[in-house]
Structures are given as C-alpha cells and as structure tokens.
Write a structure and sequence with these properties.
Blueprint (H helix, E strand, L loop, with lengths): L1 H23 L4 H26 L4 H4 L6 H11 L1 H11 E5 L4 E7 L8 E8 L2 E9 L1
Antiparallel strand pairs: 1-2, 2-3, 3-4
Helix pairs in contact: 2-4, 2-5
Amino acid sequence: MKPLKITFALLVAAIAGVGITMVATNPKPDAYEDYATKQLTRYLKREGDELCDKVDVPDFLDDIVGSQCPQLINSLLKNNQDELRAIIVRGTQRQNYGVLSIYRTRLEISSALPGYEVESVGVFRRFYTYKAERL
C-alpha cells in the first residue's frame, strides 16, 4: 500500500509542478502583440509580393516601378509597425485562464479590404494560431 501512496504523491506533485509552470509561463498581452504584429507583417509581405507580380505596369514604367514594388511594400511595412500593432491592440480580446490565454483578434482595417478573425492560444511562453478566417 505504501508504494501506491508514494506514486500518488509523486503524481500530484508532478501535476502541481506542471500547473505552476503553466501559470508562470502564460504569455502576457504585450508578447501576443509582438507575435501578432510579426505574423501580420509576414502575411502582408506575402500578399504584397503577389500583388507586385499581378500588377500590369506599362512597359515604359516597368524598369522604374516594376522592380521597385517589393522594396516599396517592405518599406511601408517596416515603417508602419506601430500602426499595425495599434490595429491588433484595438481588435484583440484576451481570455486569461491562468494556465493559458486565448487571444481573439478581429482585423478590420478598412471597408475596402477584407477583414480577418484570428484565434491563438498562448501557453508556455509560445503562441499557436489555430484559426484564421476571412470575414
């Protein structure tokens, strides 16, 4: 009977240790804002690269504008990180469960552009996006 009690005590201690670790490593909102800003920047860069490929620039402007398109998009994204972060902050709600947090972000920049809803879980100082859909 004694080995069973020891095993049970070790199991309870291990579960408590994992729980305490999860509470201590539950990421804060500013960490999510950093993560979401980086993810949004990557997404917009990919979309921008595709847009540059699709834009039909007249031949006489192609040498000037066509080759500049990716650099222009990169520059716009690099110089507007604070604005992207503000959009994320405005559209994010956090549900804190102590051991983990659920972040729901609704991205609606303009009525002319599609909106997105993104859900991520924050646990062990990491974020995992499990839902991203176009509105």
